[in-house]
Amino acid sequence: MGVIFSSRDFFPAHLVTQARVEVQEALEKLGINSVMLPEDQAIHGAVQTYQHSRMCADLFKAHHDDIDGILVILPNFGDEKAVVDTIKFSCLDVPILVQAYPDDLKAFDVANRRDAFCGKISVCSNLRQYGYSFSVTDLHTVSPKSNEFKQDLVKFIGVSKVVRGLRSARLGAVGARPNAFNTVRYSEKLLQETGITVLTADLSEILGPAAKLKDDDVDVKKQLEIIMNYLPTKGVPNESIMRMAKFSSVLKKWMVDLDIQATALQCWNSLQTNYGVNVCTLMSIMSESLMPSACEVDITGVVSMYALQLATGTPSALVDWNNNYGNDPDKCVLFHCGNWAKSFVPDARMEYANILATTLGKENTYGAINGRKPAGPLSFARVSTDDQMGIIRAYVGEGEFTDDELDTFGSRAVVRVPNLQSLLKYVVKNGFEHHVAMSGLPSAQVLREALENYMGWEVYAHQ
């Protein structure tokens, strides 16, 4: 975090010293590195004049690549122009969080009164005038020593990670989308405008080199070991697992060469027909390793997965809004053949894809993951390009995984989402895909702030 302390000349400057100690302690407890003016520069390290702004901005410029967000601290009223000039001169385009200290009713004398309550309004007015997006603490004034400020920081860290990650994301689209899936069409140009780059490979560019690899190739043996150690493979033909290892070897090299963070693969039916496997397990392994992978070349689906992962620091998965759950309007079944990260399915095992096997043959569909997500918290998100309107839309929300009875196969879960029917109406009336990304940790507030306020997308936050 780049930290800006600000002080106004006729307010007590000694409060800045106290603020420096308290803010540094709060950041260190969360493992956050900080960049701030030394205490012997400016006004105890706080900006108050044009010259101070230049001084702090130069410091931030020197750490340009290290700063994910800017924290504005107002120990007293602060100087609104000095704050906004610092940000302007630094040339940083990162999330901004504005904090203001509360006054103590027992310290309203000239030597100790703060008036940061009022100063925050002036600072934020200037940020708005200069065209900056910014965030504020949940409470208008809050002490850095409080638990409320800690929660503000945790949320802001998530927002900063999502914004930085998405604005520089490089995604790999491998193969053509299945012809029957118009639903996953998207606009590369709209994504590129926000910083998300899509790199493509024809499926033959992976299958061809994979078919030429020898069983004793060093990297093939490495990938084979990773697969065998990842989950039980009892009953799966060795030949199928070897094909997966070769596919993984070529795919991962392609990702490394192009610095790709996430992928969306053509999962049917060319892979089964021409190569004889499902690559669900490989996608699961990548997602578990925080390199999310979506099926059916759903690029905006993997954007959704990546956003959730950045917000929570944990694996995400792509699922279908798939089935009603009896007559309960707030419950439904989430399902996929099975490519979920094993964090979601502790009982995971490799099998064949039951549904695809009915038309493509059991022997050609080994590699799917069978398992059930246990009860726990749920958050979900979906990003979509609205080409007719020329915008990017998203929806976010939270609910819970339940332990309700479910007798079926594949990667599966029963979830409860409050007011689910209103959410589903929003999804269908706004043309969203049937896929949604999910996580096992809360993230809706972080994602809404990051996607709406900083990415500039239209976001529906389901309540």
Supply database-style keywords:
alpha/beta; elongated; Rossmann fold; 463 residues; 15 helices; five-stranded parallel sheet; six-stranded antiparallel β-barrel; 22% strand; L-fucose Isomerase, Chain A, domain 2
Low-confidence segments, given as residue ranges, are: none
Largest β sheet strand count, sense and barrel closure: 6 strands, antiparallel, barrel
Bin the helical content: 25-40%
Main CATH class of the largest domain: Alpha Beta
What is the radius of gyration computed over CA atoms, rounded to a whole number of angstroms?
A: 25 Å
Question: What shape does the CA trace take?
Answer: elongated
Structural class from helices and strands?
alpha/beta
- Give the tally of structural domains: 2
Characterize the quaternary organization of these chains.
single chain
Task: Walk me through this protein's architecture.
- The protein is an alpha/beta fold.
- It has helices at residues 14-29, 50-62, 80-90, 116-129, 147-167, 188-193, 203-212, 218-230, 238-257, 270-274, 280-288, 299-312, 354-360, 420-429, 444-454, and strands at 2-6, 46-47, 70-74, 96-100, 135-136, 170-174, 197-201, 262-265, 293-294, 317-325, 328-336, 349-352, 366-372, 376-386, 391-402, 411-416, 435-439, 458-461.
- The protein has two domains: 2-167, Rossmann fold; 170-461, L-fucose Isomerase, Chain A, domain 2 (3-Layer(aba) Sandwich), CATH 3.40.275.10.
- It has 15 helices and 18 strands.
- A six-stranded antiparallel beta barrel has the order 10-11-16-15-14-17. Strands 2-1-3-4-5 form a five-stranded parallel beta sheet, sandwiched between helices.
- α2 (50-62) runs parallel beside α3 (80-90), α3 (80-90) packs across α4 and α8 (218-230) crosses α9 (238-257).
- It is elongated.
